Amino acid sequence: MKARVLVRPKAGILDPQGAAVERALPALGFEGVRDVRVGRLIELEVADPARLEEMCERLLANPLIEDYEVLLEGAGG
Amino acid sequence: MSAVGSIPGVEQAIALGLTEAEYELVVASLDGRAPNEVELAMFSLLWSEHCSYKHSKKLLRTLPSSGGRLVLGPGENAGAVDVGGGLAVAFKVESHNHPSAVEPFQGAATGVGGILRDIFAVGARPIAVLDSLRFGELDSERSRYLLEHAVAGIGHYGNSIGVPTVGGEVYFEAPYEHNCLINAMCVGLIETERLIRSAASGPGNLLVLFGASTGRDGIGGASVLASAELGEGDEAKRPSVQIGDPFAEKKLMLCSLDLLERGLLVALQDLGAAGLTSAAAEMASKGAVGVDIDVARVPLREEGMEPFEIMVSESQERMLCVIEPEALEAVLGVCEHWETAASVIGEVTASGLVRVLDSDTLVGEMPVAALVDDCPLYDLDPRAPLEPIYGAPQRVLDSSGEEDPGETLLALLRSPNIADRLPLFEQYDPVVQSRTVRRPGQSDAAVLALPARGQERPGIAVAIDGNGRRVAADPYRGTIEAVLECAANLACAGAEPLGLTNCLNFGNPEKPHIAWQLSESVRGLADACRAIGVPVVGGNVSLYNEGAEGPIYPTPVIGLVGELPDVRRAGALGFCSEGDRIALVGPFAPEIAGSELARLGGRELPGSLGELDIPRVLAAQRVVREGVRSGSLSSAHDIAEGGLAVALAECCLAGGLGAEIALDDTVKPLRALFGEGGGGFVVSGGEGALRALGGGGVSVRIVGSVSGERLTIWSGDARIELSLERMREAHGALRALFD
Amino acid sequence: MKFGVISFPGSCDDSDALSACRRVGEAVQLWHADHDLAGVDAVVVPGGFSYGDYLRAGAIARFAPIMNEVIEFARAGGYVMGICNGFQVCCEAGLLPGALLTNVSRRFVFRQVRVRVLGEPTAFTGTLERGAELSIPVKHTTGRYFAPRATLARLHAAGQVVLSYAPGENPNGSLDDIAGVVNEAGNVFGLMPHPEHAVDELTGSTDGLSLFASLAAAAAA
């Protein structure tokens, strides 16, 4: 099954990339943007989607500093 | 041979960059047969300017390329000089201008990756990277974007692979606005007897491709981009961007060096522009053999790639080697250890042909000589321009600079061409490998320690230099100045030049005035090399750096490697001892025309530069070098952009000490303070040591002392008095770009 | 006394660390794919870009075969020093508290910085005086030390913050200017500055040597 894992900095952790994007957008005329967070997208094909959670906890994300979200294809994600 | 697909015609050949006459030559070299798609792709790349040097080869042959301490000369992946103790230093500078203009981060990163491969392709372990960059003025958003991303890209690759970036230079001038220059130089160290060449030999020997898999990256990239002017609306010509993977390259580098150390290789070649096509043809040509390559055995990262795509792909981080069949198992074992994929893709033959197979089907067959040697070489049609080629630079300074010389000095220190490069250098690791005795900002040249020989601590110094504006004013003398300044940088570190590499960045050589710039510059380069007594070990040419807005300044970038007997006495540029006397050494004859001050004032380029008295310049370099080596000088710095006042300010800032200077009033203050011209040094030391420098007829004028925390200069009636703090603030102007 | 310095694919400062260790003791290279520590008395996890720093700095190296041995060694009280990328690896492996984030500048930074030795002497700072200031280079993109406030308070209280950037020297935005921490047991040390690049006057300073010397003395005791 195809899955996507979205990893982003935890709320409250300074995200310099997000801050840089947030500063850059108004300079290009895009007003009214806030709370920009830059994370990463991991696409993978897995035999057993039930193990995704564990993959995230152990490798794909660092739970101390990052939140993650698992999206399964065809599951409305 | 069997025809595969339709046979392209002359229109396709022209679309790929060949001329009609060249297409006819291709047909003739195939005994009257029209080339098929694979063959045409290979010919068009190998006969491109980028691969064949067809507009510059005749000129390059006039450069001195032998003698001195040369152990590997032009024609190999990189040249090398003997540095004693059984060791050689391999080095080369190369451009990645066109890819960087498309995508500066990846362009600069893969530029570093490419030059690193050239160095370890001769078996040397890369020990240093330097870079030379040119962008448009910093008030342009595009220039700031290119600068930021190119610097990040260079750092990304060099830092990740663990090779220190120890030096470099950057200038901002309007003619580079649409054609930035990204030149990278790499220096490698090797036991001389282990140097390996790229000539394939031994029919029956195997061709092994190792490293990354092959995709459609940069198909038609370097050669198309670097062999014609690109205008607006030429987006379709832009190839897919090559993505650099320094992690893969690190493994590839260690794997290559390991293979060499075990004596498993017959020949080694990196894959750069024109990929497998160029690597295979070059190896076969140098060894006067043939090669068969089966594209079906090349590991691919994309599906459905055509044979011609596989042959011309510019996927990064790949090497091609020739091995004896018995060595195969051992070679594959070493590659596995370094987690580097390797595949046998063909073999060496006695046929004198490059034959391309797709499993059992022959899809291309060309004489090696036709691919590599038969490309026509063109004579240039140089003609000095009747009108100035370049407009006056944008005026930044309102005054002439005379009213308040202190403010003028601050304006110069703030100028992006002079301001402290630390905000850029901080993005590079200069210390990995534990050899760096002088980092950027500590001396005019980087100094690297070589392995100790008993009690001796020998080392090398490396520098890269170029000044396009002065070459634009006077291509012959400007180029001589650039070489001598680079040698002066080495002298300040205590080093004597051993070999030179260069990258010639110019506009369209088919235009007579560019041809003139190029021929005059090469004439200057040859004369300068003979004057300082070093061979050109290799280099690179980047032409067609121009567009509708005109050409870049002609920019020969010079890289020098020199030796010093004792790195414990490597020179430093900063004043370091209160009370030391300061002297101006050498035949320094400053002029405002063509200077940074003239640029800030919006003055047009002069029609020529003042003539340098080369023997006297070299004599001055010699006494400075000896003074540094003997330890009698506390500091040494050459006078370059911004003239004497800027040089003094730099010595103060680097050492954190002030100075009191009084210049005689034989020269007009503005010229004395801010005029430029080669041949001058600012040195400090004890009075006796400074006077001793003048023994051999070299001009030495003691002009003041190291003292306090201010720089005070009297020049006739003019007076500069500035605190270190104010100068530091102005000099830090580039910091704001990276906040 | 014998050091072992790990080499992962992508390590850059492993040779530098080996030479630094050899100034104060014996040292051998440990290969990432190996399964034993060759009887070393202390392990150095060196700097660089293990596995290209892909995914997250240190995230993949943490699962290299040799790391199982290192984790076991550390749990049994063996001395481990993680430098820069090695610090990141130790945090990812759970040997040290906290995590390293991208510098506030978002850029790689090389800088000779002054760092201060804090707290009671540890195995890594035993030969140094409290409050001593060292000049050592940093070079990294991912060096901003982070731990939740409660963890930080615990670290400070237990004297686990043993190295901090001197005032005004913090190059990356680390919380509380933290440059190096030890684990609760005091046998695992992670730091962002590179002491192996401060062991020779010729190439910079010798201030980093005392950290290796302290470790050698502790491991030999």
Describe the fold and architecture:
The complex is a heterotrimer of chains A (77), B (739) and C (221). Chain A is of the alpha+beta class and 77 residues long. Chain A is built from two helices and three strands. Chain A has helices spanning 16-27, 52-60; strands at residues 2-9, 40-45, 66-72. In chain A, strands 2-1-3 form a three-stranded antiparallel beta sheet, with helices on one face. Chain B is 34% helix and 24% strand. Chain B has a seven-stranded mixed beta sheet. Chain B has a seven-stranded mixed beta sheet with strand order 23-25-22-26-24-27-28, sandwiched between helices. In chain C, strand 3, helix 2 (65-75) and strand 4 form a beta-alpha-beta unit. The relative contact order of chain C is 0.19. At the B-C interface, helix 8 and helix 10 of B face helix 1 and strand 6 of C.
Quickly describe the structure.
Chain A is 27% helix and 27% strand.
For the secondary structure, the number of strands of chain C is 11
Strand content of chain C: 25-35%
Distance between the termini of chain C: 9 Å
| Mean model confidence by pLDDT of chain B | 93
* Largest interface between protein chains, with number of residues from each side: B-C, 33 and 29 residues
Distance between the termini of chain B: 62 Å
* Relative strand content of chain B: 15-25%
H/E element order of chain C: EHEEHEHEEEEHEEEH
Rg over alpha carbons of chain B:
26 Å
SS-based class of chain B: alpha+beta
Relative helix content of chain C:
10-25%
How would you describe the oligomerization state of the chains in this entry? heterotrimer
Summarize model confidence as the mean pLDDT of chain C: 96
Share of helix of chain B, binned: 25-40%
**In which order are the strands of the major sheet of chain C placed?**
2-1-3-4-11-10-9-6-7
Query: What is the C-alpha radius of gyration of chain C, as a whole number of Å?
Result: 15 Å
Can you count the helices of chain C? Answer: 5
For the largest beta-sheet of chain C, the strand count, sense and barrel status come to: 9 strands, mixed
Extended strand count of chain B:
28
